[in-house]
Amino acid sequence: MENKQIPIVEATKDGLNRYADFSGVSNRSQYWYFALATFLASLAASIVAGDMVGNLVSLITLLPSIAVAIRRMHDVGKSGWFILVPIYNLILLVTPSKPGVN
Predict the structure, then answer these.
(1) Using an 8 Å Cβ cutoff, are 71 and 20 in contact?
(2) For each of the chain's 102 residues, which pLDDT tens digit applies?
């Protein structure tokens, strides 16, 4: 029997381990699990230790979040610069992966 981790833990570890890797791809579930984990960590830090600590957690996870978002753009076949386009980037973040990219 394999010892499989739950997807949110795998996605969070991958996002933090590749915090400055702006090449490659991250699939849709990796992106959204990482976004959920960073949001929950920031929220928990804000509740437990105050807004200053919650903001610090958000600041610490800013670079990994940008890297995961850029890799997500690569996964749908677009340039990483598309994360700067306000509405279109949200559409791309929920778009399925391109077949040949992975």
Answers:
(1) no
(2) 455 667 889 899 999 999 998 998 988 999 999 999 999 999 999 999 999 999 999 999 999 999 999 999 999 999 999 999 989 988 998 888 887 655
Spatial contact of 31 and 93, defined as CB atoms under 8 Å apart: yes
Is residue 73 in a domain? Answer: yes
Q: What is the phi/psi pair of residue 101, to 5°? A: -75, -45
Answer for the pair 28, 97: CB distance below 8 angstroms, yes or no. yes
Asked whether residue 101 is assigned to any structural domain, the reply reads: no
Contact 78, 92 (CB under 8 A): yes
Domain-embedded: residue 25: yes
Q: Is 42 part of a structural domain of the chain?
A: yes
Task: Measure the CA–CA gap between 98 and 15, rounded to whole angstroms.
Answer: 20
Nearest to 65 by CA among 83, 53, 79: 83
